[in-house]
Design a protein that fits this description.
alpha/beta, Amidase signature (AS) enzymes, six-stranded mixed β-sheet, five-stranded mixed β-sheet, 17 helices
Length: about 475
């Protein structure tokens, strides 16, 4: 058994963190390392790096060790090639033995006793959960600064946000704590931190994932889940594993050349900042250099109608949170336990969204699949920025900031990602470019319903043409200096 207690052992644990999930699994398959050793190394990395990042909301180190020992006792399973690889579940994901607080002070710390099919799939695949990652309250904010704590910092610059709502996942991956981390995406919550932290974030299309949570009219419609990672092959494996039909994993590029439509302006008509626009143009040029046909296009829809629908449905989630907390402990409890942002969304919805607004929102959403089906008859892929600007400094999107200023600040930053949630189409953010100050700039590629494989094949090609595997942030396994 390898010991990671010494300086040399900790250096080995950090070095293992530079490997993706497939490479870590290969070490177990070859007999070089056990599942317990892979797990212990991840625990060491969390202990060394997370105090500076605040990416973990819950540590389950002892349970992870027990799980790894059981895998080693059972021996290798050819049907589970990534068995023994460590991962993080998001704080909203029910994992037996761990609390499910959703980033909220209103939730109990009682551990879950049952796992949804999504967790069952990755449990059967042999992954080892070492804990849970941070998120904003109920995933309603694009930055991970919950009043419950901890505030999560971006490994590329600890003064900046890692995005959200899967911000802890993005930060942990970028730093190399784990190679796989769960993300859920209702308005960009996988792609936002993927862009802000410089990792791979795939949002599957509607119906392309086994059940993850209880039934809810809005969440069933707009939320998708997958495992985020640093490599396309890890993301492709995770997508295939969690898909209801278990398709074959996409393992590389496709020879097919694509028709790609490039859009720079966001849905409400706002232009991206200069660096984001330049990064998106660079991605378009890279695609063209690889033989794809890239053409500048406009949104094939009424952006303002979609924008209004997003505000109506998203603020309704605030109402749901208030109603649930009120039923749990009364109105005074809800007012005290919920964050100002959540309460503000509920009040905004009650003031601005009646039956007519809800009807318009549902009508707009219902039309989007046909709109994109027609668009993708001409263009295989839609290329646009993932985010309108680089990651903001912490505090810019804090949940206790004045609501009147916070509402436009949040939605204008995430102006590109919610469309695919409302349309039910897949999209992926790739870390192709970095800004002048070193912060990552993700670029988003979207396709028609059922075309995740097309996006993954393109992602493989772009990863090979503009590799990001050797880019590491200042707070990471590649830069940590052991002073113990």
């Amino acid at each position: 058994m390898t010991s990671f207690d010494s300086p040399a052992g900790r250096a080995d644990a950090l070095a293992l963190g530079r490997l993706d999930a497939h490479a870590q699994a290969a070490l177990r398959s070859s007999g070089e390392l056990s599942a317990l050793e892979l797990t212990e190394a991840a625990i060491v990395r969390a202990q060394l790096l997370d105090p500076a990042l605040g990416a973990l909301s819950h540590q389950a180190f002892d349970a992870a060790r027990q799980r790894a020992r059981a895998l080693d006792a059972a021996g290798p399973d050819p049907a589970a090639p990534l068995a023994g690889v460590p991962w993080l579940a998001k704080d909203s994901l029910r994992v037996p033995g761990m609390p499910t607080r959703g980033g909220s002070r209103s939730r109990s710390s009682e551990p879950a006793t049952e796992a949804p099919p999504f967790v069952q799939r990755f449990d059967a695949a042999g992954l080892v959960a070492i804990g849970k990652s941070t998120m904003p309250e109920f995933g309603l904010m694009g930055s991970t600064e919950p009043l419950l704590g901890p505030v999560t910092r971006n490994p590329w610059s600890r003064a900046h946000s890692p995005g959200g709502s899967s911000g802890g996942a993005g930060a942990a991956l970028a730093a190399g704590i784990v190679p796989l981390a769960h993300g859920s995406d209702g308005a960009g919550s996988i792609r936002i931190p993927a862009s802000a932290c410089g990792v791979v974030g795939l949002k599957p299309g509607r119906g392309a994932c086994v059940p993850v949570r209880g039934r809810h009219a809005i969440e069933d419609l707009i939320v998708a889940d997958s495992l985020m990672s640093r490599s396309v092959r890890d993301t492709a494996w995770a997508f295939a594993t969690a898909h209801p039909d278990r398709p074959l994993q996409v393992t590389g590029p496709d020879r097919r050349r694509l028709r790609i439509g490039l859009v720079l302006e966001s849905l409400p008509g706002l232009a991206p900042d200069t660096e984001v626009a330049a990064a998106t143009q660079l991605a378009a040029q890279l695609c063209a250099s690889l033989g794809h046909d890239v053409e500048t296009v406009t949104w094939p829809l009424d952006g303002h109608a979609v924008w209004a629908a997003l505000h109506t449905l998203w603020s309704r989630l605030g109402v749901d949170a208030v109603e649930l907390a009120t039923a749990q402990g009364g109105a005074a409890f809800a007012e005290c336990a919920l964050e100002p942002w959540t309460l503000g969304l509920a009040r905004w919805h009650e003031a601005h969204c009646g039956i007519a607004e809800l009807e318009r929102a549902w009508t707009t959403v219902a039309a989007l699949p046909d709109v994109f089906s027609r668009f993708h008859a001409h263009y295989d892929v839609l290329l646009c920025p993932t985010l309108r600007t680089l990651p903001p400094t912490l505090g810019t999107l804090a949940p206790d900031r004045d609501f009147a200023a916070l509402l436009p600040a949040m939605f204008e930053w995430i102006a590109y990602t919610p469309l695919q949630n409302l349309a039910g189409t897949p999209a992926i953010s790739l870390p192709l470019v970095h800004g002048a100050d070193g912060l990552p700039i993700g670029v988003q590629f979207a396709a028609d319903r059922g075309q995740e494989a097309l996006l993954l094949a393109l992602a493989y090609e772009l990863e090979a043409a503009a590799p990001w595997q050797d880019r590491w942030p200042p707070t990471s396994v590649a830069t940590y200096e052991d002073t113990r």
